[in-house]
Amino acid sequence: MILPIYLYGQSILRKITKDIPLDYPNLNNLLDTMFETMYNAEGVGLAAPQIGLEDRILVIDLAPCAEIDPACADFKKVFINAHIVERDGEEVLMEEGCLSIPNIHEKVLRPGRIRIQYLDENLQAHDEVFEGYPARVIQHEYDHLDGIMFVDRIAGIRKQLIRSKLNKIMKKNVQCSYRVK
Prior knowledge:
This protein is α+β, with helices and mostly antiparallel strands and 181 residues long. It has helices at 27-40, 132-145, 156-170, and strands at residues 45-47, 57-61, 76-98, 101-119, 125-131. 24% of the residues lie in helices and 31% in strands. It has a 5-stranded antiparallel beta sheet, sandwiched between helices.
């Protein structure tokens, strides 16, 4: 089932998510729906708040980014109850976009390496280190779990320059190839 993606301005995108219980009902169906919704929108990551849920869940499939980083070719992961416990490495400035902020791309500075603890789709615990493009995408999606959007991380002057575009998105005056709410 393909769900609508919540756009910039929706209050759910500013809420801090909660860890889910291990007996979360229909978890596999939700994960399938998240991937299907993400693929339909031609995204590489999707966090639960983007489909209206306050749950600490995100999905990522970086296969479309294999030309940027060959390590992305087989990178398809589910992160449940994720918590970044360390950020380090050289900070890298790179352009980002977001399904919840369509048609806007801005450069964001992020650490090049993270350590994250999470449960996978089988509720198996992991404590892993990611670098490069995977680390960037995880941090972007992880921010959604804490009510942060990539435009919150850009320079103030750049945010002022895109303010009118953000206001149009808040009014749903935007064209998307996917369903939005």
